[in-house]
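Batch job 17 of 40 flagged for manual review because the log was empty.
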Amino acid sequence: MLFNYKALENSGKHTAGSIEAVTIDVAIGSLQRRGLIIAEIEPAEKEPWFAKLSFGSGVSHKDIVMLSRQMATLFEAQVSALKIFTLLSTEIENTTLKKSLEQVASDLQGGSTISKALAKHPSIFSDFYVNMVKSGEETGKLNEVFNYLADYLDRNYEIISKTRNALIYPSFVMTVFVAVMVLMFTFIIPKISAIILESGQAIPIYTKIVFGISDFFINYGFILLGALVVIGFFLVRYTRTDEGKRSLGNFKLGIPYVGNLYRKLYLSVIADNMNTMVLSGIPMVKAIEVTASVVGNDVYRQILEESLVAVRGGSSFSQSLSQYEEIPNMLVQMIKIGEESGELGSILGTMAHFYQREVINAVDTLVSMIEPVMIVLLGLGVGILLASVLIPIYDIANSAGL
């Protein structure tokens, strides 16, 4: 990037010019090493106002996987870290990631380590990612670490996206169904009810219930909508508290069948995280600590944090996990075997693959069950609604001799 500057030389003479640098900090550092006192410096090309807008991290999972693969290749080719991040920052199309890599390159030029530079961007590089890189720096195997990271992120993304996608379909269908029912109760049923009531015919109890629901939506619909918005707002705020996160975690695990799917998902994340970190040479205590921060469920986070305290106190990891019913006995026993045999990393890898297969099988089963169940439920709902309206109309037609 090109920067224009105005500066003061040691002799007191004013000077101006331009300098090519990765970031503005690098440009300032280069000018100061020349003995210049910076008066003003700015990019030669101003960014448009919309480029400064931020919508989350703006970096996809795929971007991080591809970045990790590229870094592994470049480190294997024995390219220097500064050169790697400088090169990648010019090739990346994602603006947010590009700026982060430029800042990382600037920090590296200033003498920072890669892990410390990446840690300044937590919205892009997680604690797990940073600690894996730190392990690679300490062991001198950064190329292997970035390959591990890319493989892990690929597996993690596949499992989580498959689970999420399985739950999106029924959520979408139910949302559409509820929207259609609300429209019918507020626009269609009132017109039909007026005709039936004017006829003076006896109305069945189930039809009266449908008309009552319709009247409720018409008279109190906006109040109900406002109440739902307020409740939703406070629920979101509650789930951001420690108690709320715990309650949400328990709720997810308590949903029939889906809770078992979530449980297997979190166990696969724990096993896969720890397998990757242990095989990379990260100490057990640090591996537990980092895994607790990225597991994604407050119940399992608390279990790992309490286990961490026990491990620091001299207990084995398997022994500390054995007291929690959320941790299957099979996993505890396998970890115990790994601790006793010195093959904990490979044992955790085996369990990670096992739970990943379990998650995929559970998702496939759930998807195969969802469609017929949804068809039956939707059919019953629509059938009851139509019957409650059409039967009185049929009675009116018979009494009129039509």
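Reviewer: the log was empty due to a logging misconfiguration, but the result itself is present. The mean pLDDT is 82. Unflagging and moving on to job 18.
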